[in-house]
Amino acid sequence: MSLGNHFRVFVCVVFMGVLVGYVFNAKKDITDNVYIDTVKEGYLVDFADVKVRDAFNYAFTEPYWRYYKAKTGQHVVELSGDILFSDEKGHAILQFIVNEEATEFKLFAMKFNDVVLDSKQKGKLVGIVYETWEMKQLAYQ
User: Fold this and answer.
1) What Rg value do the Cα atoms of the chain yield, rounded?
2) pLDDT digit string (tens) for 1-21?
3) Residue 63: enclosing H or E segment and its boundaries?
4) Measured distance CA(66)–CA(82) in Å, rounded
5) 114: left (phi over 0), alpha (psi -120 to 50) or beta
6) What pTM value is reported for the model?
7) What is the rounded distance in angstroms from the CA atom of residue 104 to the CA atom of residue 134?
8) Residues in CB range of 23: below 8 A, 6 or more apart
């Protein structure tokens, strides 16, 4: 084997090693921790009679909960799922900021079909979620 071939084999082995290392060290979504539990078991201010988990699990198709720590140091719980909003079926993403002690949280940001919602639209989407929960409760009675 010539020196050029040795070099190509060396580069190929190094590249494969880096690729394997990346795949095995890729961060996994955190889908079960105290911050997620705080949001799921908590209540939104205007809807103190229904847990967040109950309302959103009824309204969203395949709700997905995950946690991450933002670059700002904030603890973020993200909820995503499909929902009918403004007569359009689409994908919603909500972000809740949870305090360090995991005792309180607030709804921070919201998107629908990759469009950031303003405060009026956020209120409307949350209202739809709780109306959906209420209608499903009435249907089961």
Assistant:
1) 22
2) 565 655 565 544 444 544 434
3) strand 61-69
4) 16
5) left
6) 0.76
7) 25
8) none
